[in-house]
Amino acid sequence: MIGHLRGRLAAKHPPQLLLDVGGVGYEVEAPMSTFYGLPGVGAEVSLHTHLVVREDAHVLFGFATERERSLFRELIKVSGVGPRIALGILSGATVDEFHRSVEMQDVASLTRIPGIGRKTAERLIVEMRDRLKTLGAAGFAPSPGGVATPASPQAEAFSALVALGYKPAEVTRLLQKVDPAGTSTEEMIRHALRAAAK
């Protein structure tokens, strides 16, 4: 199991990034909460990781904090919640926001996340209530500061939101509400996710 990586950020195209560790490029998928805090391409990055082994692929997931990774690991134990949905949950809510939704049995806030229907939201609340106590209660606040890549930030934001489970038509509608002038990919995604949660 690969549990941690530290290396140079070679590329970032939400929700994927490429980490150069001693000349070996690791393709990593990360939630938007992690992307928001990433430095610019070329900077050194340290990530907590979780390797998912499937018959057809080995997929490495990266997280800025241990709490994010711990929540991801608990989420994928829930029936009907795979790594993609878990990544979507962490992209649509911080660890603390997810805690609050479960504690308050707020089905509505969970169903706003792509891929989460009412039955899955109810299952998450029932199954995660006790598990969340093991994750601790320390605050989590992703810091802004992503740097836009040379490619069109709007195109990258569109691809990332579709990859997170939003329908293309809905992504187009969400991105129309964001002013593209001087806005990075990460900021566009953040604004779109906030708009989708309303």
Write down the CATH topology of the largest domain: DNA polymerase, domain 1
The major sheet is characterized as:
5 strands, mixed, barrel
Number of strands: 5
Radius of gyration: 16 Å
Beta percentage is 15-25%
Kindly report the average pLDDT value: 81
Broad structural category: alpha+beta
Q: What is the count of DSSP helices, taking H or I runs of 4+ residues?
A: 9
- For the biggest β-sheet, the strand order reads 1-2-3-5-4
> What would CATH call the homologous superfamily of the largest domain?
5' to 3' exonuclease, C-terminal subdomain
Commentary on this structure:
The protein has 198 residues and is of the alpha+beta class. Helices cover 43% and strands 19% of the residues. It has three domains: 60 residues, Beta Barrel (OB fold (Dihydrolipoamide Acetyltransferase, E2P)); 70 residues, 5' to 3' exonuclease, C-terminal subdomain (DNA polymerase, domain 1, Orthogonal Bundle); 40 residues, Helicase, Ruva Protein, domain 3 (Orthogonal Bundle). It has nine helices and five strands, in the order βββαββαααααααα. The protein has a five-stranded mixed barrel with strand order 1-2-3-5-4.
